[in-house]
Structures are given as structure tokens and as C-alpha cells.
């Protein structure tokens, strides 16, 4: 079984956009800014497996997707501005 690398996943702009969207939604629910690291950890735990299955090319349908290790800290990159 092939394991997906979270560090590579966090290098994709689409993933960072999804995490920033998740950060915004969760911050709205909490009533304050939850921060990028907390949003990234939550998104990786809750939604990354589904994102990989839906958006990455199907090279091997039997990929294993374990929970992310606790020692990986995503690098914060600024969100894209549309203005």
C-alpha cells in the first residue's frame, strides 16, 4: 500500500486554498480567528482523505491514507487576493 505524503500535499495551492476556506468557516463558527495551523491540522484530519480521493489522479486505487503525524507543522502561505 502506498502512503500519501502530507508534506507534498501541503505544497499544492489547491490544498492551501481549501485550508484557508476551512479556516474562514471555522473561525466564523468560533467567533474568532482560529489560526492557520489549527485549521490545517483540522482539515488534514477531517477532509484530506476525501480531497485526495476526489482531486488527485487515480494512480493506484488502494492507497492508504493514515492520520497526519503530530510533528508536521504546515508552512503558512498568504491567501490569494482577488482584489
Plain-language structure description:
The chain is an all-alpha fold and about 80 residues long. The protein has one domain. Helix content is about 50%, strand content about 0%. It contains 4 helices and no strands. It is globular, with a radius of gyration of 13 Å. The relative contact order is 0.23. The model has no long low-confidence stretch (mean pLDDT about 80).
**What is the count of β-strands?**
0
Can you count the helices? Answer: 4
Give a short account of the largest sheet.
none
Average of pLDDT: 80
- The proportion of strand residues reads under 5%
Task: Tell me the Rg in angstroms.
Answer: 13 Å
Fraction of residues in helices? 40-55%
Order of helices and strands: HHHH
The structure class reads: mainly alpha
